Every structure is written in structure tokens, then in C-alpha cells.
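[User] I wish I could look at a protein chain and see how it folds. I have put the entry right below:
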Amino acid sequence: MNNPRIRPALRRRPLLLAVSALALLAPLTACGGSDTAEADANTLRLWHYEDKDGALGKAWAAAIEEFKKTHPDVKVVFEQKAFEQIQQNAGMILNSDKAPDVMEYNKGNATTGLLAKQGLLTDLTAVVKERGWDKKVGDSASVTARYDAKGEMGGDKWYGVPNYGEFVLTYYNDDLFKKHNVAKPTDFASFEAALAKFKAAGITPLATAGNDHPAGHWLYLLALSKANDTWVDNYQLYKGKVDFHGPEFTYAANKYKEWVDKGYFEKKDVGLKGNNMTEQFVSAKRPIMVGGNWWFGALTTDIKNFTWSTAPYPGSEKTLGSGGNNWVIPTKARNKKLAEDFIDITMSDKIQKLIGEEGNVPLAVKADTITNTKSRELITAFHTAQSGRGLAFYPDWPVAGYYDTWLASTQNLMNGAKPDTVLDELAAPYDKYAASRS
């Protein structure tokens, strides 16, 4: 849910330990100088929350080093923040003199859109066109970088710049499929047949986590299997009315409950976090995991004892996904030109290729330039989905604070609540906000 979620939206990557708003004002990790140094024309202050060993963490570190080479007289003060730190306290910090010059921030109405509406982010529209970033990002991936006066995505002003993509796909333990003579799914019927066959063999087939974004991702993905472009635009962009008891969400809630009742998910998964879900897959306890590509890089490192593969979820032509998180420049940033220069470096071929080789999805280079075979397949799958309007964003994006609603509602569904009751829970804040727009 876009992680964000915001609390963090239903998000897609391991989070660093959240700390207090007071800690957000203090330096955590500094590279190239003390945070106590007075920010001036020769200082770039930069925040992000990527793990240093992940594809994006490595890419941003390389971008910092490249920036230092091209700006030898500029001091770079980098602070690694926790995702929830920035998520929960960004409004307060960016409205103070502690704002960095550039930072990574989650996309969506409840995050980048909200800060843009509050006047806390710089309008980058002219810069984006001048530097040609719009040509590299593309229309589909830029939806979550562009907002209107209400702070709703898809507007005509750029308030952020994404330089990677993300989407939800299926991970298979190929060895378990072979061991139990289960055919790899090619459509929804064969997917359910695989679930049933694993369950009959005493294996819970699906890895999941009820106390994190994966549970809500599953519910939305099932709804998308019955949805068209108009439904997605109505739900995400308020282009029309959404009926939470219509065929899309009704099917999703009923199918989800059916799978819980059949044991395709375990009810005890209701209290698990995303890392617990990946551990189920890495430890070969669950043969199938449907999750974001943000898990991909860690899996390539962590899985040692079995062969695995990825494929689009076979039950739907649409999946959760979008352009990645945004680089944003706060309105109160002291050195906006330096911030623009840094963003430009993250869009360079060198950094974009690094993102791809390390197992993530760069937006500005082609898949055939990547030598890592698994990564090349991943990137190709993303661009295929993006080109065909197959990316349908995340379920909690339309409403500020909606992540908590989705989290509680999917947990209720796993705990035995009636589907209609759960859909009422999801509808209430959405309908309230939709009504306030008119």
C-alpha cells in the first residue's frame, strides 16, 4: 500500500527501526562532514532511508561519491533516517529550518501529495523539463511524482522525481514444485490447483504477513483481477464512484476468506511482519510468495539451498506497482541547485545501471544493458506491465491514514470477520474523503 502506508503505506521493503521526532532533528550518520556544520552554498544536506546493503542504498552511495567528484568544493552531509521517522515527522521537519536540501520520500496522495498541498515541497516542473527527466521517467511512472492543487496524484506539477520502479509479482520455490510434482501456474485455475495440491501434501502454500502490507496487497490484487482501467482510475484518482460492495472488492474479500478457510494462508500469520513472510519463503516452508520486487535483491543473497524464479501473478493482468519513491526538494531547502544536480546524477546511465545490476528496477536504462540475468528478467517484466497500464498503484494511497484501515481490515478478515463487514470498514474513510472533495 504505499508504504507505503503511511503510517507507512503497505510497503515494500524492510524498515529501519523508527525513532522519535526529536531524533529526526539530530544527525544519525554523516558522510563528508559533521551535521553541526552550518549549511551554506557549499553544503548539500541529504536524507534517505535505504539500507546500505540494498540495491538502492548502494546506488545512492555511488551517486554521493559521483556528486563529490563533480562538486569538489561542496561538503555532503548525508543522514540515514528510518522510513517511519520521515513518514511520521516530515511535515514538522520540513516546516522548520532543519529541512534537508534533498530527501527520499514516499509517493502518493497521503505523502508527497499532502506535503505538496501544504506548500512544503518545491515545484520541480520547470527543472524536470529543462533537465529532461520527464523523458526518462515516462508518463506512467511519473503519475506519483505529479500532483494537483488538492495534493492528488496525476496532476500537472512535478513535486518529486522517481528513478526506479516497483511492482508486485510471484516468487516460486522451483525445487518444492518439482519435489511435489506440482505444475508451475500459467493461469488462475492452475494457480489454485497448485495451492490445493500443496495443501493436500501438508504444506501451507502461500507466504504472507497479516500485520504488514502483504495482507492488504493480496486483497487488492484479487480485486484487480476483476477490475479494468476505469475502475482503477475511479478508485485511485476519484474519476468516478467506487462501490466497495461491487464485484471487484466483493470477489476479493470472499476469495481471500475462502483461502484462509482452506488453509492456503495460516490464520496465525495474522500477527506477522513482512520480514517474517520472506523468512517463510527463504526457509522453504512456503513454496509461493507474492510480493514486491523490493524483496528481490535480498532473496538473491539469502537463498542458498534451492532454485527459485519469478513470474507475473497469473490471476490478473494488473498488479500493484508504480514509479518508486520520490526525490523531493523541500521548499525551505537552502541549496536547491545542488539538490537538482544530485538528482540528475541518480538519473545518469552509470547509477541507473547500478540499480539494475544490484537487483532493482531502473527507469532510465533499458533491460538489455543489464548483465544480471535475473535482474534483466525483472526489469523486462516491470516495463511490460507499465507499458500496458498494468500498474495499478497501492490500495491505501487514495486517503491519508488509509494504511491503518487496510491493515486492520485485512487482519479482521483473517480472524474470521464477514467479508461484507470488512468492506464496510474499508469504505467508510474512503467515502468520507470522496464526499469532502465535492
